[in-house]
Design brief:
The chain is mainly β and about 270 residues long. Strands 1-8-9-10-11-12-13-14-2-3-4-5-6-7-15 form a 15-stranded mixed sheet. A hairpin with a 2-residue loop joins strand 8 and strand 9. The longest helix is centred in the first third of the chain and has 9 residues. The N terminus is likely disordered.
């Protein structure tokens, strides 16, 4: 029961079989054009990507309709998500309004309860890499749902590939340490928010493209309300559509996981 866990927390998935409904998820993946024109000085990193990254938040709560397809199966389910910044994520996956999976992620561990099989377990955060071939931290998942640049660090030296094509600004960078990760962020020059972002790990030939199609204002932040995620690895292609049904920002949340006494460790 591992393949849907990554989706339930942004792309964390466990392997759901008999509960899954065979709904085809329509997707609209983006095609990344190769930018050709140099960006003006005023559109450099500090004029838009820093401001997006620096947005302030403390708590978030969201309910999402999630559509998943990997080429061999397609189904939809509901995901309820609670986040405390840099601290914890709690996700509940439900089918037909019945919760079947509950997960709590911290910066170093994942605790989960499988209600269908009446079992529980614990894994290191690093195990997410084994599930989908993409190494995503708890912080990355929070960034994904909030429309913030994944993996962006003020201290990282990004390559000077600032370009403009049409109405979008692009920036590339390579994160040093471990396996190199190439980042590219796209944003409308008329609006301080991301249109899409791309992560590519050359060594593993793994690519993640996240497209933000719709936004809703919550306080001072623009929150994505329709998210397309495409994951391509050497083993599989996965697409996920996240449509938010309800969202709250900066309202304190109770974040915990409860394991019934009669549940056994998952095998």
């Amino acid at each position: 029961m591992k393949a849907l866990l990554l989706i339930s927390i942004g792309m964390f998935s466990i392997n759901i079989s008999s509960c899954a409904r065979n709904n085809t998820a329509s997707t609209n993946p983006i095609a990344l054009a190769t930018p050709t024109e140099p960006v003006p000085m005023e559109l450099k990193k500090t004029s838009w990507i820093d401001s997006i990254h620096a947005q302030s938040w403390r708590w978030m709560y969201g309910k999402y309709t999630t559509n998943y397809t990997d080429g061999s199966r397609s189904f939809s389910f509901k995901t309820s998500l609670k986040c405390s910044k840099d601290s914890a994520i709690n996700a509940i996956v439900s089918f037909a309004s019945i919760p079947i999976f509950n997960a709590l992620a911290t910066p170093d561990s994942l605790f989960y309860v499988n209600k269908k099989d009446r079992c529980f377990g614990k894994q290191p955060i690093a195990s997410f890499k084994e599930l989908l071939g993409v190494e995503l931290s708890m912080k990355n998942i929070q960034e994904l749902f909030l429309g913030l640049p994944l993996g962006y660090k003020d201290s990282t030296q990004y390559t000077s590939e600032f370009n403009v094509r049409g109405d979008s600004t692009y920036m590339s960078g390579i994160l040093d340490g471990g396996k190199p990760i190439e980042y590219r962020y796209g944003s409308s020059v008329k609006s301080p928010r991301l249109s899409w972002q791309r992560l590519f790990i050359p060594e593993d030939l793994t690519e993640v493209i996240i497209q933000y199609d719709q936004w809703v204002k919550h306080g001072l932040m623009d929150i994505p309300s329709l998210i397309h995620v495409s994951i391509k690895t050497k083993e599989q292609n996965i697409r996920v559509i996240l449509t938010y049904d309800k969202f709250e920002l900066n309202s304190p949340q109770e974040i915990y996981i409860q394991i019934p006494d009669d549940y056994a460790p998952c095998k």
